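Suppose you are handed only these lines of text.
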Amino acid sequence: MVNFMSKRKVLGIIGSPRKNGNTDILIREILQAAEESGLETDSVYLYDCEIHPCTACDSCSKTKKCIHDDDMTGIIDKIGESSILVLGTPVYWWGPSAQMKAFIDRWYGVDRSLFKGKDCLCVIPSGAESKHYSRHVVGMFEDIIPYVGMNLMKTIIASGHGPKGSVRNDTSLMEQAGSLGRGLNH
Ligand SMILES: Cc1cc2nc3c(=O)[nH]c(=O)nc-3n(C[C@H](O)[C@H](O)[C@H](O)COP(=O)(O)O)c2cc1C
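From them, the structure of the protein bound to flavin mononucleotide can be written out as follows.
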């Protein structure tokens, strides 16, 4: 019998400029496990995208369109096609990366129905050993995600991972990422 149901799609949004870095590795692990469990996946490196910062011109409130014509259009299309988002950013000076912040600021001009009902995972590596240093980024996602109508399923906090790619040697984190990815196909 032909199955007309489309697969749930998982979109990884990588907010670190460091390819093959800790954010990238953990998101890829989630996506690979999700794919192995039968889901479709896609990903975006924000660093490779042209995303102009929001200028607070507020024209989107009148025209329902942002004044910037850049890669946000393509990313919004990808979000629309996905039912699960995996958002990842390293901690930079107690906050998210500039790429992730510029991306999220642009949600200001996006029709909130885009996000409604989607599930979300977050990945937050940081150099300091203590999770205390990630608390603002954790809190930012905990507030923003439900605010736009998404469901925050889980946040992976990868503290104590300053060097590029060091999460690979952290079996427990890699297992957590894999198991979250596999669990998305329910
Ligand atoms: C500009 C910059 C600022 C950083 N600020 C912090 C910080 O405030 N707290 C922290 O624990 N680690 C900080 N780090 C370390 C990164 O969070 C850490 O190296 C992380 O694993 C990077 O993730 P990535 O490999 O995905 O890029 C900073 C790194 C950079 C480059």
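What can we learn from it? The longest strand covers residues 151-158. The beta strands are 9-14, 40-45, 84-88, 119-125, 151-158.
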